[in-house]
Amino acid sequence: xxxxxxxxxxxxxxxxxxxxxxxxLNAIRRTATTHVPTLAxxxxxxxxxxxxxxxEYIASRLGLTSLRADPKFLKKGDKAxxxxxxxxxxxxHAKDLKPTDPSVDVAYxxxxxxxxxxxxxxxxxxxxxxGIGQDHVKWQPANVYYRHSVTLSSKKGLSELHAKIVxxxxxxxxxxxxxxxVLSDPNATDLSNKIRESKEIEMExxxxxxxxxxxxxxxxxxxxxVLLKAAxxxxxxxxxxxxxxxxx
Length: 248
Prior knowledge:
By secondary structure, the protein is of the alpha+beta class. 25% of the residues lie in helices and 40% in strands.
């Protein structure tokens, strides 16, 4: 297997993966989204709430607030206490949440939680619990998906089309040689319709060559960590399977 970094951005990673198949990448995708543990607010004790929002609405919004934690908090069932006490007038943001453990923090400090008017108060204590996306989407660390790379070829060559794609969206190009143009996705350029409608250009999906994309939700410092953790979880599951099969 060969892996190369193709594109990165804020909370985004795109890898070119060669020498594998859909089954393996789907296993990584499913494991990353459902079995990689994160920390999320689960239990909320509200002592005072004079805002215009119902207690249940605030609790739901807090549950979807991305938290970043030390790995020691990422064993399923581990807990951390977070406090919140504010008085209006002000907009309460995620940065106003006060974890009692310094190794726990919010991923997006400026995320708005609720607005307090003059004289309104909010006071609560929360319990953040480590869990997995299989139990609830609030524990899902990222959106992970993959797609085949595509090779375009033509007897007349693709130099003109290559130049146009470079001009409009060079990030779509993975490789260009021997009159063949390899793209990350036929829909990734402004010329996608022209490519599909052309009678001179042949389009072929590449076997064993994929773009693996990870859109992180802030629970981990990097999207690479999500994939590494998914690989660890998958490895442990295969060990368990091997152990049980030996008992037969």
